[in-house]
Amino acid sequence: MCLGVPGRITARDGEMGTADFAGLRREVCLAYTPEAGVGDYVIVHVGFAISVLDEDEALRTLAVLRAIPGGLDEVSR
Amino acid sequence: MKYLDEYRDPVLARRLIGEIRAAARHRWSIMEVCGGQTHTIVRQGIDELIPVRMVHGPGCPVCVTPLATVDRALAIAARPEVIFTSFGDMLRVPGSGTDLLSAKARGADVRVVYSPLDAVRLAAANPGRQVVFFAVGFETTAPANAMAVLTAAREGLANFSVLVSHVLVPPAMSAIMESASVDAFLAAGHVCAVMGWTEYEPLAARYRVPIVVTGFEPLDLLEGILMVVRQLEEGRFEVENQYARAVRREGNTFARDALRRVFRVSGQTWRGIGDIPDSGLVLAPEFAAYDAALRFGVAGLSAREHPACIAGDILRGTSTPLDCPAYGTLCTPRRPLGAPMVSAEGTCAAYHNAGRVRQEAQEVLP
Fold first, then answer.
1. What is the DSSP letter of B277?
2. Is residue B91 helix, strand or coil?
3. Which residues of B touch A1 (CB under 8 A)?
4. CA-to-CA distance for A2 and B148, rounded, in angstroms?
């Protein structure tokens, strides 16, 4: 029910816009993300952008995950 | 897809599982509140790979919508002047006698919409009909439904109304902390994208439980679990944010402003759980004209549950679907007795779709 999907904004006209979801394009209400522009990624839930994705934070999370040392099973392969 | 695929890497998942196994020196119980997270955990078998007891919470708005509210929806949808609109996942939720999909098959004008704004457009396009939208959901969905009401008000659409059944997560977590024995919580990432996490800080302090705001992909869930386990092993009980790419401490202030304008906090009945104080939203007095329950005079309906269904214990995390004698026999996703078997995010449906069967049932299989 709280499913949210990341989409890339491809067009914006006031409170409404279009977002691209891996090739599928849909109309999105951008009223709650006034700071989001074309090229930004937003989390879309029931046709509404509820959050702008923060690229720096995403990279930081991935860096933490990638810093976890691998197990012996990975070394032996 | 960017922001999804990176969080599904099987090599990193195995490393995280190794970290959790190394960090957990006790068998902790962790509740994931959100049904979307339950679905991923059970489908990927995450709970079977780690030395932690995952307890599934009440975080499926479809599942906790009161039976009486479903009956009100059915009563409104049966009226000839009404176009009844809803998100798709409410259509198969059983009311006392039937469900919206069966009502549609018998001729009621029930339509699935993708966004609440689609329902507003239907009202504008059909001035001779009454368009009603079934406004269910957590804090994640409430801003979208608030915008539908604001848009209808701005456009002066007198033929649009909403049947509201909104539920709030923190009061339910508080109720669970009073009764159930879980050591920590994964807070629902998209609820927090709207609301932030300041509401959880007093809960973590009062009940001395770690709470980690967590995303929905397998690596998000594993990292959230690892962060919780580390807090538990170190004796900390703080609110931490695993889902930093989407959630800020204050949430989405624009969405929260819309909620404050359109709704008021009120007591709410949770299906299978009962009444929880201050755990729901109702329309604010200045938007009462858009309240479908008042407009169609169905506010007084009450209802009774099927006696075999243990949905309440499932939703509180005190039982699993495998404890229910009706699970997989009387009650299946095709013929659900109770709401947790209806939605893919319901705990019973998540178990059933993952092929989990009761011990007794396993023994009689060839």
1. E
2. coil
3. 35-36, 60-62, 87, 89, 136-138, 140-141, 343, 345
4. 17
Question: Using CB atoms within 10 A of its CB, is residue B52 exposed (0-12), middle (13-18) or buried (19+)?
Answer: buried
Q: At what angle do helices B218-234 and B10-23 cross, to 10 degrees?
A: 10
Q: Are B187 and B213 in contact (CB under 8 A)?
A: yes
B203 touches chain A (CB under 8 A): no
- How far is Cα B166 from Cα B119, in angstroms, rounded to an integer? 18
Q: Which residue among B1, B61, B258 places its CB closest to the CB of A6?
A: B1
Low-confidence winner among A5-19, B33-47, B133-147, B166-180 (lowest mean pLDDT): B166-180
As a whole number, mean pLDDT of residues B20-31 equals 96
CA distance linking residue B157 with residue B173, whole number of Å:
37
Residue B196 confidence (pLDDT) above 80? yes
Place of tokens 């962060």: B227
Neighbours of B277 (CB within 10 A): 12
The order of strands in the sheet holding B184-188 is: B53-59, B29-34, B184-188, B211-214, B239-241
Cα first-last separation, chain A: 41
Could you tell me the two tokens for B184? Answer: 């920590």
Closest residue in A to B2 (Cα–Cα): A6
Residues B49-60 have pLDDT tens digits of 999 999 999 888
Of B240 and B180, the structure prediction assigns the larger pLDDT to: B240
The reported pTM is: 0.93
The beta-carbon neighbor of A2 closest among B141, B245, B252 is: B141
